[in-house]
Amino acid sequence: MHRAQPPATTQSPMGTTPISMVSGLVLTRRDLFTLLGSAAVLVACGGKSHTASPSTASSGTLSGAAASAGTAGNSGPPLTGGASTSASGNVVQLGGPHATGSDAISVAEAEREEQTADGHWQGGWHDATGASGDSDLIIAIDGASRTAKVTVSFGGKPFGAAIPAVTYDIDLLSFMLSADSYTVSSPQFGQVTAVPGGSNNASGTLRAIPGQPTIDHVDVNGTRIGQRVDVGYTVQYTDGHSVKGTMAWTASGARAIPAALGSSGAPTTTDISSGTYAAELLDAKSLTTIFGEPFSAPTSNGGNLLYDNGIATSNARATATSGDYVLQYTVYVGTNAADTAAFWAKQNAGLPTTPGPWESGFYFPGAGFYAELPTRVLLVNVVQLKATAPPTPQQLTKIQQWATQVATALTTSLKAG
């Protein structure tokens, strides 16, 4: 998982924004393997069964389809060890061509992750339907060989069905540290795309979950604080309805109790401060529709419970699969309408209001689109990651349109809650 850069500040009508303003994708993925102790969606992303050919890796993708075709997108050496040869159906090998040079995890880094992730992580899950169950993650990293063994089990019926326990044998050298995301095939969670967030945050999207034809996808956001991991997830069904849930694990003390289920109207303080609240207001499907190209699900990006008088902030970000654009947004959470109005009055530059489902809003070039709701204020910023010059008038118009469309989607999500 990459380390979060300290948020840069930009002077705008809202003052100093808490959103990181990025001009290029320069974040390292050196902390990727903290994922092994961070969240089920990120540790339980296995490859092909040992009874099939090994998975292959290409630009951060571990694809069973590529494995069965016997092809790979990079020219790294084949998998050379550290993975079990067991033929058990409950043991899954995750590996492929090795990353090289600075893209490969070092022994020292693997040993560091061994110290922070190894152990028996105990917790559970629950969702808005009232379903619940225990969950266990048993993690053992061998830093010297740069391999890991992770056993993932769930009690009850997450997503409406039982999930078989699986042990994943992971060749850590198969992951490119510079990759922006990792897509793998899991017998527990289907096609999993994991996106590193901050130093203790990550997100994921699950698709084609085995035995779950009525689920379109599941969006997941995970946050690790010390020896506790919290995950919020939303199951999106093909008929349009959704169900929210939370999971939690700890490597010390009693079994972790999952966080209370917040909502867009009444989020928990943990959801706000971690950025999970903001991240769960949108999903990959809606962003792909807005931008007209594939987008990752939003990743939680931290927050601040004491940003201003009666105002907290919750931040999230999402990146185009092409790497051309990053979306960054903040939800300013007001304690009440009066605090929100007072905050807006201090920050509003008095620019003409852009029509929309908000009370007032405006676009400020280079800083993003701002919208005022009764107890929320939104800041949406779209940044070109590969730009070598300021945007042309045509590009600026397109960016402004995207920002207002994202703000509209956020507003709709907030009102639905």
Features of this protein?
2 domains, alpha+beta, Lipocalin, 6-stranded antiparallel sheet, 417 residues, disordered N terminus, globular
Brief sketch in words of this structure:
The protein has 417 residues and is of the alpha+beta class. The chain has eight helices and 21 strands.
What order do the helices and strands come in, and which of them pair?
Layout: E1 11-12, E2 15-16, H1 40-43, E3 56-58, E4 61-63, H2 64-69, E5 91-94, H3 107-117, E6 119-127, E7 132-142, E8 147-154, E9 166-171, E10 182-186, E11 190-196, E12 201-207, E13 215-225, E14 228-237, E15 242-250, H4 269-274, H5 276-279, H6 284-291, E16 299-308, E17 311-319, E18 325-334, H7 337-347, E19 360-364, E20 368-372, E21 376-384, H8 393-416
Parallel strand pairs: 5-9
Antiparallel strand pairs: 1-2, 3-4, 6-7, 6-15, 7-8, 8-9, 10-11, 11-12, 12-13, 13-14, 14-15, 16-17, 17-18, 18-21, 19-20, 20-21
Question: Can you give a write-up of this model?
Answer:
This protein has 417 residues and is an alpha+beta fold. It has 2 domains: 11-24 and 281-416, no CATH class; 32-261, Beta Barrel (Lipocalin). The chain has 8 helices and 21 strands. The strands form 4 sheets. It has an 11-stranded mixed beta sheet with strand order 5-9-8-7-6-15-14-13-12-11-10. Strand 19 and strand 20 form a beta hairpin. Helix 6 runs antiparallel to helix 8 (393-416). The longest helix is centred in the C-terminal third of the chain and has 24 residues, at 393-416. The chain is globular and about 60 Å long.
